[in-house]
Amino acid sequence: MECFFKNHLHQKQYIHHYPIMIILFPYGNFVDNLRLFTRGGSGGMGYPRLGGEGGKGGDVWVVAHKKMTLKQLKDKYPQKRFVAGEGANSRVSALKGSKGKDCEIPAPVGISVTDENGKIIGELNKEQDRILVAEGGLGGKFLTNFLPLKGQRRIIHLDLKLIADVGLVGFPNAGKSSLLSKISHAKPAVADYAFTTLQPELGKIMYKDFKQILVADLPGLIEGAHVNKGMGHKFLKHVERTKQLLFVVDVSGFQLSSRTPYRTAFETILLLTKELELYDEEVRAKPALLAVNKMDLPGAQNKFHELMNQLQNPKDFLHLFQSKMIPERTMEFEHIIPISAITGEGIDELKNCIRKSLDEHADRENDAYHKKQLLNLQISNTVSHSEPLSRNAVTSSGMDTI
Q1: Residue ranges of the Obg domain (predicted)?
Q2: How is the beta sheet containing 60-64 ordered, strand by strand?
Q3: CATH at residue 235
């Protein structure tokens, strides 16, 4: 059993206090998937008498643009049909017909493109990434009896998995919307019912050294989300593309309704970890922080100390719970911060911890990348130096045979 966290709350470490400015990203009428019809252009006619070839039909591409959203795409192209241009016919003045005009579908960064059967065609992970989704038909030529071929017809699905630095993970009513409002001056709808967040809300923290951290408040999990209960996969698919997780739990625990069991803060952490683990082990393995919210409530300090004792000594308490609730590997939190999204307690420390954690992981990733590049260079040099020896050995063997 791994420990739940690396840095105990009371083991204070020096954290830089970064100047912060906040920007809100509005996501009204959020659209996270689209179904589109695509067709490559038909090829051009060949010219049998002179052996001329018709031009190839245009191709249909999906191209990533940072400022595009699926809602904008849907509004701009309500018919959701994308057809590329036809190839030019071969003629006496131009025996080789020109290629048809390609069709480009502008899409947001962070798109997964699948066909009608759910097979992944590709992903758009950065600006100007492009995926061929419908190929144009060949122009008429000798092999086709100079008759052109039709372009590929394909139904595709664009599925947005948000790319954010930090994804807020918590059961309904944990205070995620209030927390996002506090750290980003966002104004998500916050009400006294369980499913406050029905669509993703994004907030961006901008630092004076130009560092930007994007935080996503995602629709709340419930028990059984991994089998698509509640918002299930609609939530979990967005978590996949966050660099880091920020667990947000109510220090007083959680109860979805009078018909569901009450869960303590410790149980909540176990269940959240279990849901992530059952959905995708890689999601559970992401770097994580823990924000223990609602510290302004009466008795919160005692409950927080009880939670810390449980996190420090999990083996002393796990036997109290059903085995199906216990994850195979418990979450390892890098920082645990008590906060109140209402009063602002701990919010500055939380922001600094997020920044510190992301910077440390970025440094480690850069080190790992440089080490890999160096290793590849060493392997390349070893192979290049050994090649002349291999040729000499073959020559020597040939002489022996003679």
Answers
A1: 28-163
A2: 103-107, 60-64, 130-134
A3: 3.40.50.300
